[in-house]
Amino acid sequence: MALKNLIEAKQLLEQGVLGELIADATKFEESDKTNSIPQLLDGKVLAALFYEPSTRTRFSFETAMLKLGGEVISTESASHFSSVTKGETLEDTIKIIGGYADVIVMRHPDKGASKRAATVSPVPILNAGDGPGEHPSQALLDLYTIKKEIGRLDDFCIAMVGDLKNGRTIHSLVKILAERKNVLIKLVAPCELQLPGEYVKLLEEKKVKFEKLSDLDDALDADVVYMTRIQKERFESKEDYERVKDCFVFGKNELAKFNKNGIILHPLPRVNEISPEIDSDPRAAYFRQAKNGVYARMALLKMVLGK
Ligand code: CP
Question: Which of 26, 91, 231, 274 gives a 20 to 30 Å CA spacing to 160?
């Protein structure tokens, strides 16, 4: 069981991969509590190549590498501070960095950029988000969180809320959920931000139960509510964004009606879609989810670096 890189969530469906990653993430989380993480990646170097802003993905990958004994090289903002500004192609950049580092974590505004990088890279590429495409390591940490919080990855109802069109974390998670048993997916979005056809087709082909909804209240019986940000940067006009920007807000009223055993997730960053007033409720799991990213990514680094 091994991955050479992680470009799309469907790779997590390869025989035994998801189970091994979740088991390793659990072990790393346990060993972190006793400061006894094995230094498996001593002497290895991770390059963080981010052409778009990031807080969680970049810092959690870097933390994961450091906790495993490895080193990190990174650029503040690759679109401004790498030789892209001089006209260097993505392919050349990857070939060069692949000569310095043992693994490259890359975020890029273009869908498919990680796939392009992987075709020329001498070292593993980990897709940290390719425009409105995918964010597979986020799906991994989301699944790790769901397993930890509700105890299962089958037989549950998840409401996906917000910008399902541009939300790459949604796209990656849907690909995995389509393969699980007895998962009901409630897709809560304005018409223009509903899940793209290719993912709806997948759900239909896999005979996954799903509902398209326009009212968050109709999804508050779910075991997992997965809120997402309306992705301002992917809109063509300010007016289009303004029309939908606050369409779903999970606040105190929603919390009062929400499943008593449910959890609220969000890949973050949030804008207005979750009121800070509900942060202290035990069902608000999004900060725990963000921390889980470190352990999920430790497991992933261990796998692709063959340790
Ligand atoms: N969840 C996520 O991708 O967050 P960042 O944009 O901060 O990396």
Answer: 26
CA distance 125 to 169: 18
Quote the domain boundaries for residue 77. 10-135+293-304
Please answer whether residues 255 and 281 qualify as being in contact, where contact means their C-beta atoms are separated by less than 8 angstroms. Answer: yes
Q: Per the residue annotation, which of 44, 57, 165, 228 is the catalytic one?
A: 57
135 given a catalytic annotation: yes
The Å distance, Cα 141 to ligand 1 centre, comes to 12
Give me the pLDDT at residue 87, please: 84
In a domain, 25, yes or no: yes
The CATH number linked to 267 is 3.40.50.1370
Q: Are residues 141 and 283 in the same domain?
A: yes
- In this structure, which residue's CA is closest to atom 1 in ligand 1? 267
Pick from 198, 111, 138: nearest CA to 12? 138
Please indicate whether residue 268, judged by its CB atom, sits closer than 6 Å to ligand 1: yes
pLDDT band of 234, cuts 50, 70, 90 = confident
The answer to whether residues 150 and 279 belong to one domain is yes
Is 145 a known active-site residue?
no
Please state the domain count of the chain. Answer: 2
Check residues 78 and 263 and name the one with the higher pLDDT. 263
Name the nearest CA neighbour of 23 among 150, 177, 148, 155. 148
Q: Is 12 in the pocket of ligand 1 (CB under 6 A)?
A: no
